[in-house]
Here is the input.
Amino acid sequence: MIEIFGIPLQAMLGQLLLGLVNGSFYAMLSLGLAVIFGLLGIVNFAHGALYMMGAYVAWIGLEKFGLNYWASLALAPLVVGILGMVVERTLLRQLYKLDPLYGLLLTFGVALIAEGIFRDQFGVSGQQYQVPELLRGATDLGFMMLPNYRAWVVVASLVVCLGTWFLIEKTRLGATLRAGTENPKLVQAFGINVPLMVMLTYAGGAALAAMAGVLAAPVIQITPLMGSNLIIVVFAVVVIGGMGSILGSILTGLALGLIEGLTKVFYPEASNIVVFVIMAIVLVIRPAGLFGKEK
Here is the structure.
């Protein structure tokens, strides 16, 4: 059996795979946060709750209405995105000209309300969501067995993340979004409905969180607290990558997932804090983050 620093290669590759799956969730969630902060200037602490809601929409769809995984993968982002529109139009729109701290406090309150409602309805015990039949089983790579669903999570996350980055950074629509948030009066002068564009941007960020929730549902227990348990790590990912940097969030999320996986192999006790240690080091060396712009 091949060993590296006394660790069996198969065990190391298994932890790297687990780290890559976690990194995929970090990337998708931090991407949504980066989109909302980068374009709207809102520190969206409700993002974890939106992730949780996406998973519950998938579970409720299956248990109550018989909707399969693939239908939920399309429906959950739509439902949570519409909810995001309501939140943006009724609550967040009043805060855009104020200090970002107000947005953070408001979204934190929204997250607590959402968690309380779901805890009251479903309790704190976890719900199970079955892996879709098409993605069950594993593929033998020779040196390890690769669960098909975990491979799907990585591929789907990469496609969504890179597609979102391309849309915002490389298309005319993305350029219009950025211009509308930087100089709304000028963009409105060209006949573009900036408030509608801002509302759809927040809805898009919420939909990304919900899609991550659906992807996570078959590999973790669905609980009302699943978002709050993850959101602190995701905020650390965004800070390391650079607040508002979309590409930075994607690359940092994947990289930190792998680092976390390796830490579990060599020093398991530090796996829960390694992300925060890296964040502290990055903030000391480069306060704007690895990919952020220095002011």
Q: What stands out?
A: The CA atoms of residues 239 and 289 lie 6 Å apart. The radius of gyration is 19 Å. The first helix runs from residue 9 to 40. DSSP finds eleven helices and four strands in the chain.
